[in-house]
Amino acid sequence: MKQNDQGIFLHRTALSDSSLIVTYYTSGKGLRKFVFKGGKKKAHQLFPLAPTELTFYGRQESDLLQLTGTEALFATDFQFNPVKSTIAFFIAETIRKCVHEFDTDHHVFDFISDQIKRLQQADENVSHFPLFFLIDFTEIIGVQPLVEQGGFIFDLDEGSIGKFAPNGHRTAQGESVEIILKRINGLDCKASKDVRDKALQTMMEYYKIHVPGLREFETYTIVQEILS
Prior knowledge:
Blueprint (H helix, E strand, L loop, with lengths): L1 E13 L5 E7 L3 E7 L14 E7 L6 E9 L9 H17 L7 H16 L7 H12 L5 E2 L5 E3 L4 E3 L8 E3 L1 H10 L8 H18 L9 H7 L2
Helix pairs in contact: 1-3, 1-6, 2-3, 3-5, 4-5
């Protein structure tokens, strides 16, 4: 049966000389994979975080749906900016590795859509964008650290920012935790490159602890390099 949905492009892999397997986070079906016959000819439409109107066939329980048509939902130009496009690759990888296939959550789709618009509208100084995305995304996927009033020690194992942490737990503190705490509390925050890099590294470690099965991020080192 022919179906339509809105999707946000995340990833592609080659299936044959002309076809692809593509991954989208969709509004109605969550994270889904599609066979896209002849997709290599339309590679210009397949950039990370591309907001797309999808036409496809297949049953709800099918592992692979048949994608037959794609059309941009709205125009974007961040894919032509080397810094913003690298950030888009990083965000797309984070979503793909942290969200379970077949789980449908409109809050996730709305959050990603909002991030796309923010990236599109951001000025040239987007150095804080990957860090802020990781911090904000913890709330969406249900692993946001619990914050104790007056807390300053980030207990990565416990998933909390408090005044104490048990011996043997992996912890962080200092300016890098301050910027994380401010962002969670919705406060304006900026930091030097060193502090920002340390905070980003802390959040990456936190994700590995609290997202089951999460492996290394392929785009992490590239983001670090391009933002330096």
